[in-house]
Amino acid sequence: MWKRIAVVWTLVKVDARVLWYALQHPQSPRWLKAGAIGMVAYLLSPIDLIPDVIPVIGVVDDLVLIPLAMRWLIKRLPAAIRDYAERRARGESVDPAGKPSVVRVVD
Asked: What is the DSSP string of 22-37?
């Protein structure tokens, strides 16, 4: 069970990074920014699908809906922005035009 939780947590972290870099792209669509704001508002809002005062189930809806919403937003990104964000999330240096940056080090 813990192994599954670790795998899911890793996927959520990767999706969060991809979404973060997609939001920083100069051509990111407005609906992406609105969706990200909506996710944060839902996470911080006291109004939930299932109230958080219910011991376990109240938190589970946040743990399920937020990663699903992140994945949904990422899948609907334009291909160029998604590629840019995925490459940045992997640690590659990429300029917003989508071309890999070349850095030459001279001693």
From this structure: HHHSTT--HHHHHHHH
Task: Give the distance, in angstroms, between the CA of residue 10 and the centroid of all CA atoms in the same chain.
Answer: 12
Q: In this structure, are residues 84 and 96 in contact, taking their beta carbons and an 8 Å threshold? A: yes
Instruction: Tell me if 32 sits within 8 A of 77, measured CB to CB.
Output: yes
pLDDT digits (tens, 9 = 90+) for 31-89: 999 999 998 888 888 777 777 677 777 777 778 888 999 999 999 999 999 999 999 88
Phi first, then psi: what are they for 100, rounded to 5°?
-65, 140
What radius of gyration do the chain's Cα atoms show? 17
> Of the candidates 95, 54, 73, 56, which has an alpha carbon nearest to the alpha carbon of residue 103?
95
**CA dihedral over 82, 86, 91, 93, signed as positive or negative:** negative
